[in-house]
Structures are given as C-alpha cells and as structure tokens.
Design brief:
Number of helices: 0
Number of domains: 2
CATH class of the largest domain: Mainly Beta
Distance between the termini: 32 Å
Oligomer: single chain
Helix content: under 10%
Shape: flat
Radius of gyration: 18 Å
Largest sheet: 5 strands, antiparallel
Number of strands: 17
CATH architecture of the largest domain: Sandwich
Structural class: mainly beta
C-alpha cells in the first residue's frame, strides 16, 4: 500500500533527485506517482515494513505546480503500521454495463481515500484502510480519461453520471467488511 500525500495545487513536474527517502538509517529506492486525475495526490510506492521508521524529505523544487511555483523544504517522519491496525472493505458491485467506471471510497467529508478503475460488475477490494467511516461513489467514465467530467453547457454535453452507495461503510482495525451494491 502506498504512502499518500495531498497537495494544494496540481503538480506538473516531479524532480526525484530532490527527494530523500530513508528506512531506519538506510537510503532506499522507491517510486512516486500522481495518484488522481486532479494531480494533487501523490503515492509513494514501497514495500513498507511494520513498525519500521521512515524519513522522507522533499528538497526545494521537488514539485512544481501548474503556476510554476515550487515547494519549499518538507520533512516527514513516520513509521509503518501493523497490518492488524488496518481494515479492508470488499464491495460487490452489480447492475453495471460493461463500460468504464471509477469506483471511489470517500471520507465523510467526501475526500477520496482510494479509487479503482473498473469495467463492470465484480468484487472489488480495498486493503489496508485506516479505521473510519466511509462512503462509496461510482462515476461512469464515458470518455475513459480516468476522471469525472463536468460536461459542457454550450455543447449540450451532460456531466458524467455519478452514483453514491446508500449508507456508510465502516472500516475497522483487523476486520474485513463486505458489502453489496446493486445499481438499477
């Protein structure tokens, strides 16, 4: 599971030479990817170890946003969680056509926790979630660009359809929650 960082502005460039990543006391290799269509969420992919300590430093200029602004120094110290401290949600989705969709788990404030690109009915699993109350949203991705499109009034193009799971999903430590979502 990646470590996720939320930024204020969309990122246009990442200079990995200006990112220092250390596990315990040893510099390690990692990968960093832009994780959402708005280019504001970054995932650092690494094989995290339970209870290991990590140091992550973004030096000035590691990120540049769409206005040309660059970051100042950012420093993070954190440790790997035990798997038993996290939960999972298995969502069985049915009633979909064989089309492109985006399935999202959201916080109570509608912030995206995780998202999957899916192509129809199936059982979709979200692993290693922090214990919290969540919602689910499904976006019909008509143009298959991996993000919700608001439409265009002048071209008479409707926004992409969005569906919300009725009820909430509770992720609990060391639990696997199963839920069924039938769209009609």
């Amino acid at each position: 599971m990646p470590a996720t960082f939320q930024l204020f502005n969309p990122v246009t460039t990442i200079d990995t030479a200006k990112i220092i990543f250390i596990e315990d006391t040893i510099a390690k290799r990692y990968s960093i990817v832009i994780a959402d269509s708005l280019k504001r969420r970054l995932n650092i992919n690494y094989k995290w170890k339970e209870e290991s300590t990590y140091f992550l430093q973004f030096l000035p200029g590691a990120f540049q946003d769409f206005t040309g602004r660059k970051n100042d120094t950012l420093v993070y110290n954190f440790s790997g969680k035990k798997v038993s401290e996290t939960g999972s949600i298995k969502l069985s989705v049915s009633g979909l056509k064989e089309e492109s969709y985006i399935l999202q788990l959201l916080t109570g404030e509608f912030q995206v926790v995780r998202e999957l690109k899916i192509n129809g009915n199936g059982v979709y699993e979200f692993l290693h979630l922090d214990p919290q109350q969540m919602k689910a949203r499904l976006i019909r991705d008509e143009n298959k660009n991996g993000k919700w499109d608001s439409g265009n009034y002048f071209n008479k193009k409707e926004p992409e359809e969005t569906y919300y799971y009725i009820g909430e999903l509770q992720s609990r430590a060391n639990w696997e929650v199963e839920a069924a979502w039938e769209l009609k």
